[in-house]
Amino acid sequence: MKKIICKNYDEMSKAAAKIVEAQVVLKPDCILGLATGSSPVGMYQELIKSGTDFSKVTTFNLDEYYPIAKDNDQSYDYFMRKNLFDHITVKEHNIPNGMAENPEEECARYDAAIEAAGGIDLQVLGIGVNGHIGFNEPAAELPANTNKVTLTESTIEANSRFFESKDQVPTAALTLGIGGIMKAKRIVVLVSGKNKAPIVRELFKGNVTTNIPVSLLQLHPDATIVMDEDAASML
Ligand code: GLP
């Protein structure tokens, strides 16, 4: 796993945006895997500013709360429109349907749509304080395919900062599985802030364990972690 250490959040955002821009220049009709959370917001702003032509790009987001309506301002659908899709034109953007009547069918449909599009060329990821990627929470076993997961207490706690109160955080989500993430041809992980320093230290101990889902990315042939000095401070 390659690592790039940047001075601060802004530099991290710029470095990650350069990687995405290069991907789009290299393959204008590429498939991008996108993430939500505070980590990629600065990168999205850089991409908007860059003037890159995204008109042939198709995107697939990693995850969505379940159940949640698209127009709920806490949905990842809403987040993506506000932070990116209201400002750039892409060919098509996809997010798991947080209101699907049958979540299992929705997960299978989502995997099939990614496959039919030709697979993800570049997957952007953030990580949770517990090392989760997407919503794949630490566990003895992790599903390969897109699946419905129950969120852990630590994720509900961490994500409650975006909600009025903790009890408003949905307790489940639909997320790409580890196999879906690992199938991406390239992966870029954005990590910022002192609260992520302990999990970054765990990651670079070099062990691979489903108890730290992000550690599985060490098995990926082309994964890069772009972090700021705060996130790298315990290395
Ligand atoms: C959420 C999302 C993840 C994201 C993580 C980190 O739980 N499901 O995809 O990577 O939070 O968020 P942040 O970047 O805000 O720290």
Report the radius of gyration as a whole number of Å: 16 Å
- The averaged pLDDT comes out at 97
Strand order of the largest sheet: 1-10-9-6-2-3-5
Number of strands: 10
Please give the alpha-carbon distance between the first and last residues: 15 Å
Low-confidence stretches: none
The proportion of residues forming helix, as a percent range, comes to 25-40%
CATH class: Alpha Beta
Q: How would you classify the quaternary structure?
A: single chain
CATH architecture: 3-Layer(aba) Sandwich
Each distinct ligand: 2-amino-2-deoxy-6-O-phosphono-alpha-D-glucopyranose
Kindly estimate the percentage of residues that lie in beta strands according to DSSP. Answer: 15-25%
Give the total of domains. 1
Helix/strand structural class: alpha/beta
Give the overall shape.
globular
What is the number of helices? 7
